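Summary for the lay section of the report: proteins are chains of building blocks that fold into shapes. Here we show the chain for LytTR family transcriptional regulator and then a coded description of the shape we predicted for it.
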Amino acid sequence: MKILILEDEKHNASRLKRILMESNPDVEILDTLETVKVSVEWLRNNPIPDVILMDIRLADGLSFDIFSQINVACPVIFTTAYDEYAVRAFKVNSLDYLLKPIDKDELQQALLRVNPVKTNYLKMTDVQIILEQFRQSSTSYRRRFLIPVHDGYMSVGTNEISFIYSEFKLTHLFLDSGKSICIQQTLDELEEELDPELFFRGNRQIILSVDSIDKIYNSFNGKLKVTLKKDNQKEVFISREKAPLFKAWLDK
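The coded shape description reads as follows.
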């Protein structure tokens, strides 16, 4: 089976590859792509894979945008961090999906269900329906965190957060007050829980709030360098692929 992986987080892509090779010795991984743009170019210029493992969020937008630019003539298994309610859209359209972190057995079962000959491939109308349902089911965002403290709890509103960062595999809320609080959730989980109008995943280590931005500078190779209001010592680099999305996010 020839598989194409669309995933912009390198650690997630590496885990997928490892699981695939461990459970399916005959699998051939054709490529691992990080953006909508590169994925469209690859599909236009290469033989059709047997199946695509497709993350919903890629570095330059939603993977649904691929379907508006090219006919994807093979089965697709979506990989997503969204919960079971957000992926109901895929169920009603007879599409398969896997929730992150990807379970080895679930991935194996999904691949066994793929039949390249009998699969009804996605039409653009199907994608539009899915996207609309997806948006409707993803409108409820986290507004606060309940944080254990001493012998009780404290509530922290998302409006109090300047940015969220990962360090030594631990996630921290950095508040406008200058206080840093460790929480259990990962950045991948929080990216899906927080309102994308207010929060932006700058890179693998940080999520920025819209009010945290101090200054933005052009950097090398098309990247952007961002300094923050509450921590002038921290410099955040936005990749060339994400730079247009970041500027569009701020220009509203």
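Put simply, here is one thing we learned. The mean pLDDT is 83.
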